[in-house]
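Quick review question:
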């Protein structure tokens, strides 16, 4: 994703067609207008044993063979932090990408999803709004639609109008039907160019067969609002929790230190809400935490992740030894630290247990969106990914995630 610059606003990094007229931005927290027809999911149940303990989001190192029918895998030495960094620094087959999200599959492999990826073609880098990578051991295979010369998004390509209407992957988990369910934000551009006045307008739910990674269904999520329930998803023994964060980054409020730049919507960017469904029942209507109970009324939801000193809270949540852990790159591009919080319950109370300073890769670079890698955990540490970019918004070799090891919460006494 391009970054704002402290000049005239966001920079377009790829030519974008601009329609003669655009609809005004919809009301906040509304249901999405103009839904395209659902992609029907055939009745299917996948009976594949999972390697994951329900008390944890973490799995062993990715295993399993590459998938036939995909591009040839690109392999690195292993699955450690340095191997992940080396793969993405190698710029093959993905030249650049951000918003790294990893979903463990039942057979031990891992599906990665990315936003606004630059994919190599014979005529230069092509920007694709979403792609996947299948990781099998230290090998990676690209997941997209289209062709090698004209790559298109992996998810919802037929509903995508490049730079005007597109889809970015959010959280996901295995359902009770054995399918991988990934929540997806429908994005609309309301400004004069790409990432000028950008808004999530709806939440979708995509069904993926974890055996062959085929997308077999896509439809509006049970809560299809632009609140983005599904921003982060984590399950315990009884429930699946859908966290929400508004993800409005471009064209909203003036920056406190550069008022000429319109960036995040500060009315909502610090707020993280949570709803829940029965474990793996992602087609069910969620119930929302209102500070006292789980209720049907979404408007009663209250923020759960700490907000003091945080203007922007793009938190990602996982389970660690039966507790919940959240990783947050506070204040997104503008911040310089990652905060780690822990709670006994998804609805809190949450307590900060560590804060880590981060340094960008270059003088003109920034960091944003820390996410939890579901493998590679040590005795008292786990691995996170961190998105990186240049302030100019132009494609550079720095537009790739990096990875680092962070402390886990202290072990509770038995």
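Suggested answer, residue by residue:
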């Amino acid at each position: 994703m391009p970054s704002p610059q402290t000049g005239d606003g966001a920079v377009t990094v790829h030519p974008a067609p601009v329609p003669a007229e655009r609809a005004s931005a919809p009301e906040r927290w509304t249901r999405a207008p103009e839904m395209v027809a659902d992609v029907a999911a055939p009745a299917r149940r996948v009976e594949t044993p999972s390697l994951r303990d329900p008390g944890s989001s973490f799995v062993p190192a990715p295993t399993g063979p590459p998938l036939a029918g995909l591009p040839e895998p690109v392999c690195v030495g292993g699955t450690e932090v340095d191997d992940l960094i080396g793969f993405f620094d190698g710029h093959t087959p993905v030249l650049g990408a951000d918003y790294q999200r990893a979903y463990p599959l039942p057979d031990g492999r891992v599906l990665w999803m990315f936003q606004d990826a630059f994919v190599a073609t014979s005529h230069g880098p092509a920007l694709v709004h979403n792609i996947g990578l299948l990781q099998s051991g230290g090998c990676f295979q690209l997941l997209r639609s289209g062709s090698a010369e004209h790559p298109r998004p992996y998810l919802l390509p037929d509903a995508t109008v490049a730079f005007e209407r597109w889809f970015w992957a959010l959280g996901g988990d295995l359902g009770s039907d054995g399918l991988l369910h990934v929540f997806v934000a429908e994005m609309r551009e309301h400004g004069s160019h790409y990432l000028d006045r950008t808004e999530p307008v709806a939440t979708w739910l995509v069904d993926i067969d974890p055996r062959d990674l085929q997308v077999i269904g896509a439809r509006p999520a049970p809560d299809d609002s632009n609140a983005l329930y599904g921003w982060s998803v984590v399950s315990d023994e009884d429930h699946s929790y859908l966290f929400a964060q508004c993800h409005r980054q471009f064209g909203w409020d003036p920056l406190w230190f550069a008022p000429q730049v319109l960036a995040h919507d500060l009315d909502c960017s610090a707020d993280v809400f949570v709803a829940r469904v029965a474990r793996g029942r992602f087609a069910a209507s969620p119930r929302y935490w209102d500070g006292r109970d789980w209720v049907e009324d979404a408007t009663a939801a209250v923020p759960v992740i700490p907000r003091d000193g945080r203007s922007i809270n793009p938190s990602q949540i996982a389970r660690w030894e039966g507790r919940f852990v959240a990783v947050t790159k506070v204040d997104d591009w503008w911040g310089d630290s990652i905060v780690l919080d822990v709670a006994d319950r998804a609805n809190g109370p949450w307590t900060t247990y560590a804060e880590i300073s981060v340094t960008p890769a270059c003088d003109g670079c920034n960091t944003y969106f820390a996410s939890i890698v579901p493998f590679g955990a040590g005795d008292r540490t786990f691995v996170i990914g961190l998105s990186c970019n240049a302030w100019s918004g132009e494609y550079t070799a720095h537009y790739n995630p990096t990875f680092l090891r962070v402390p886990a919460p202290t072990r509770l006494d038995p």
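Why it works: Residues 50-407 form a domain with the Tachylectin-2; Chain A fold (CATH 2.115.10). DSSP finds one helix and 25 strands in the chain.
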